[in-house]
User: Fold this.
Amino acid sequence: MGALSAGLIVGVVAAQTRPGPMQSGQHAAPGAATPAPGVAAPTGAAESLDVNQLFATTCGWCHLKGGREDGKGPKLMGTALSDAELISRIKRGKPGEMPAFASVFSEQQLKAIVTYIRELKP
Assistant:
């Protein structure tokens, strides 16, 4: 088999294992064991965490305007929940309303998301 044929076969097999453009794949975030499609995962602890991108690509679908407005999920800016309650809600979700993300985010990412929520301004 020629190099061109082998390359085409490898490309076809790789394309078949990735979700299509309208498929979500698994819930994952940058730095998680399985990153979301199109989101690069940091390879080392020294890399900075882009919490804005993390929030936008994972939470922003439901918490609109970066968490500043109600959407499918509630407005997060000015929440009365404690940091521990926010982390618990993110990890466990809320049945029928929010999926659980315990296997998606690292402790560093959870703390960064809480800090992001606390720093939200209109």
Summary: Residues 3-47 have pLDDT under 50 and may be disordered. The chain has one domain: 26-118.
